[in-house]
Design goal:
Length: about 90
């Protein structure tokens, strides 16, 4: 088992350019904290780490057909059927 003290996280930043374009950039080195976006018009909108950390919310990048989603809901594209998703807790 690998405990959190053995992780070598790196900073992961999300930059947005325009209403629908984004870029996810990870620091180049383990335990690195510096990132930059090649798009001059992009602005930093979210920052996190590549490993679990108390208080952080994981983000998922999901593609379904021609649609994409980046956010905390791994079931974003799940069809609504009027109930909870079987075998899973609620998404908060």
């Amino acid at each position: 088992e690998m405990g959190p003290e053995l992780y070598s996280p790196r900073t992961v930043n999300i930059y947005r350019s325009g209403a629908a374009n984004f870029v996810v950039v990870a620091a180049a080195a383990a335990q690195g904290t510096s990132t930059s976006c090649a798009s001059s018009g992009a602005s930093l909108v979210c920052s996190g780490t590549s490993t679990p950390k108390s208080g952080n919310v994981p983000f998922f990048y999901v593609t379904c057909g021609t649609s994409t989603y980046l956010g905390p809901d791994p079931y974003h594209f799940t069809p609504s059927f009027g109930g909870s998703f079987p075998g899973h807790g609620t998404i908060t």
